[in-house]
Design a protein that fits this description.
globular; single chain; 25% helix; alpha/beta; 12 helices
Length: 350
């Protein structure tokens, strides 16, 4: 059995520490991949610290994974040794429900199998994620990484990229006025992807200090929502708003920024907030939500990003700095995504 060196959290009160994981030899339709890079998603921190409840330990986080095929099962037809592949937020699903048949595996009616902090289809084998040197995955749940992309900058696309791409693809047309709420790991991808789709993009953030960064990413405009009159002066301006913020904020104010018939999509999950029907009903607006993307759409996103030269802005770190990175994420001290160079884990265990 291949042994993976990893970093795990043993309980929600302690830092991540070195940990060994037994990975299985690939079955007939499985692939063993050597992991090269793994992004750090804010949801890694939520689950490692059991902030959402239901976390299982020990936990090896990581669902923004890029690697190389090291070995294939006897019946694998899609992949060969040396292929560059990605693993996103889930590694299996029931494959039989309506959602799975339609390529929307993230909405599997039986329940998708998360890349970590979950169980495989047998309901008892824990899933361990990408803060590790290798993993074994079903061939159908791998993504092909287009040639020429910078792999460390691709890793966050497997979560942050598809999370923003999916609603933008669904609701945005070239020339639309689009607002992105928040300029973190998700928001910065939203700016880049919306611009590549031909939209006019405005970043909404509470204070002025992110204006320069927003414009540097390609945004056409910036609104400091904490400024007096900001919401009144921009009423009915946007066709679409992508809200990436997980901190509690007033949806009603942002809905008033939509044109008649406009749509706001939530991809963050803040604590419950009061919602009035008035801004929806009076201008036939829509408030919707979106959850990552299925395999088909994630592959489409990767191909789109390769075509338009879109990638995440990252800070690459060795595995030894993962706990420091967690603390910095909580302070919003990163532009815009940490990515672990798994070579550092191999060197550490050599």
């Amino acid at each position: 059995m291949p042994k993976a060196q990893a970093y795990a959290v043993m309980n929600p009160k302690e830092p991540l520490v070195p940990f060994a994981v037994e990975r299985r030899e690939p079955g007939a339709h499985e692939v063993l991949i050597d992991i090269l890079f793994c992004g750090i998603c804010h949801s890694d921190i939520h689950q490692a610290r059991d902030e959402w409840g239901g976390s299982t330990f020990p936990m090896v986080p990581g669902h923004e994974i890029v690697g190389k095929v090291a070995k294939t099962g006897d019946a694998v037809g899609r992949w060969k040794t040396g292929d560059t592949v990605g693993v996103g937020c889930f590694i299996d699903s029931c494959r039989e429900c309506e959602s799975c048949r339609e390529g929307e595996e993230q909405f599997c009616e039986v329940g998708m199998n998360p890349t970590y902090n979950g169980f495989e289809r047998d309901g008892k084998t824990p899933t361990y994620g990408g803060y590790s040197t290798c993993m074994t995955v079903d061939e159908n749940y791998l993504l092909r990484i287009p040639e020429g992309m910078q792999l460390e900058r691709v890793a966050p696309l497997l979560c942050a990229g598809v999370t923003t791409y999916s609603p933008l693809r669904r609701f945005v047309s070239p020339g639309d006025q689009v607002a992105i709420v928040g300029l973190g790991g998700l928001g910065h991808m939203g700016v880049k992807i919306a611009k590549a789709m031909g939209a006019t993009v405005t970043v909404l953030s509470h204070s002025e200090h992110k204006r320069e960064a927003a414009l540097a990413l390609g945004a056409d405009d910036f609104i400091a929502t904490g400024a007096e009159g900001a919401f009144r002066e921009n009423a009915k301006r946007f066709h679409f708003i992508l809200d990436t913020v997980s901190a509690q904020h007033d949806y009603n104010l942002y809905l008033e920024l939509l044109k008649r018939g406009g749509t706001m999509v939530l991809v963050g999950i803040p604590d419950p907030v009061p919602l009035s029907a008035v801004p929806l009903v009076m201008q036939r607006r829509q408030l919707a939500g979106s959850l990552i993307g299925g395999l088909r759409e994630t592959q489409e996103m990767l191909d789109f990003c390769a075509q338009h030269n879109v990638a995440a802005d990252v800070e690459v770190i060795p595995i030894e700095k993962v706990n420091e990175a967690y603390d910095r994420v909580m302070k919003s001290d990163v532009r815009y995504r940490f990515v672990i160079d798994i070579a550092s884990l191999r060197e550490k265990s050599a």
